[in-house]
Design goal:
This is Fe2OG dioxygenase domain-containing protein. This protein is an alpha+beta fold and 345 residues long. An 8-stranded mixed sheet has the order 2-3-11-8-13-6-5-4. It has helices spanning 39-43, 50-62, 75-90, 93-97, 138-141, 146-173, 178-185, 254-259, 314-322, 330-333, and strands at 32-33, 36-38, 65-69, 108-109, 124-131, 190-197, 209-212, 218-222, 230-234, 237-242, 248-252, 269-271, 279-286, 293-294, 312-313. It binds 2-oxoglutaric acid.
């Protein structure tokens, strides 16, 4: 397979997207200024943080994406992460092929094509299940360079705490009890994707990441070398996301849209690449336990608030997700309960 790390050759057909929706031009629309919150304030019980929490809930309803600063992950850990990720993606092709995703699997290095006609993204990726431990592909994780592995473990431990804290306050925001949130998400399925988006001689022809909403509870995204490229779709327009260099981006995923019975919104996003600079990111995906049932939280459902989404065990939801090609919010739409009006009969 041609690799995006050889941009001097003409761009292979498999990367070219003839119907690429353009980025909204700045004179029409500003880059999306994503609301930013102080995480310590948000998570500090007993603090008078009611105003910030309400702003957060409104942001999740309207945008489904926000930033958190003062997140407590040390600059040293983030610096080590950048160094180790750069080393990893700079390994030779042969070295990286040791981690290549195997036929029929989705974990490892490389792009997974879910259908014949699917275009290939302009990015090198490494995807892996990290929790629960017994679901980790031990032979894959243990093959990673030691320093990268150690750095990732430290980073994941920090993000797990942040993620659970956020899931709890987001649950409370729609009226769930903490126990109900924990029952779904505590020790849940967590996955990660590290991505390197190489520079591209014709960035307007390709995409670093196909448009989609995340099929997660929440996603915590760190834009490791502070290069922009993420875009969100708002009111039908693709807007570049400008971000605070010391903040993480948090995206509400389809699963939280389902659990909240449609109160929160999962944000469709994509990544564009540029001519000069390579971009590094790491996403941590926080999900329910494999055996949990996904569906609108039972405590939220009533005659006045009937369920808008079907129920499905997480394990089946994951299989279903990986059997479909990425396509905007199609996976979420597939979970919607179709209502029939009397006129249909
Ligand atoms: O690289 C990014 O900015 C976005 C990554 C992402 O959304 C993903 O890996 O699903």
């Amino acid at each position: 397979m041609a690799s995006p790390s050889q941009p001097e050759i003409a761009i292979p057909e498999m990367f070219i997207r003839p119907e690429l929706e353009p980025t909204a031009i700045q004179s029409d629309h500003e880059a999306a200024a994503i609301p930013i919150f102080d995480l310590k304030t948000l998570l500090c019980a007993g603090n008078d943080n009611t105003t910030q929490l309400h702003e957060l809930y409104d942001t999740c309803k309207e945008w489904g994406i926000f930033q958190v600063r003062n997140h407590g992950v040390s600059p040293q850990v983030l610096e080590n992460l950048q160094v180790e990720m750069e080393k990893f993606f700079n390994l030779s092709k042969e070295e990286k092929s040791k981690y290549q995703v195997e036929e029929g699997d989705f974990q490892g290095y490389g792009n997974v094509k879910r259908s014949k006609d699917e275009k290939v993204d302009w990015g090198e990726r490494f995807f892996m299940v990290i929790n629960p431990l017994e679901r980790r592909k031990a032979d894959l994780f243990e093959k990673l360079p030691l320093l990268l592995r150690e750095t990732l473990e430290t980073y994941f431990a920090e993000l797990r705490k942040i993620g659970m804290g956020l899931l709890r306050i987001l649950g409370e925001g729609v009226g769930m009890e903490i126990e109900e949130v924990d029952h779904i998400f505590d020790n849940g399925m967590q996955t990660t994707r590290m991505t390197y988006y190489p520079p591209c001689p014709n960035p307007e022809l390709v995409l670093g990441l196909t448009p989609h909403s995340d099929s997660t509870g929440i996603t915590i995204l760190h834009q490791v070398n502070a290069i922009e490229g993420l875009q969100i779709k708002k009111h039908g327009l693709w807007l570049p996301v400008s971000f605070h260099p010391n903040a993480f981006l948090v995206l509400v995923g389809d699963i939280f849209q389902i659990v909240s019975n449609g109160v929160y919104n999962s944000m469709e996003h994509r990544v564009v690449v540029n001519k000069e600079k390579g971009r590094l990111s790491i996403a941590m995906f926080m999900n329910p336990k494999y055996e949990a049932e996904i569906g609108p939280a039972k405590s939220l459902i009533s005659e006045e608030n009937p369920p808008l989404f079907r129920r499905m065990v997480m394990e089946d939801f994951v299989k279903d997700y990986f059997s479909r090609k990425l396509n905007g919010k199609a996976h979420l739409d597939n979970m919607r309960i179709k209502t029939t009006s009397p006129d249909d009969h």
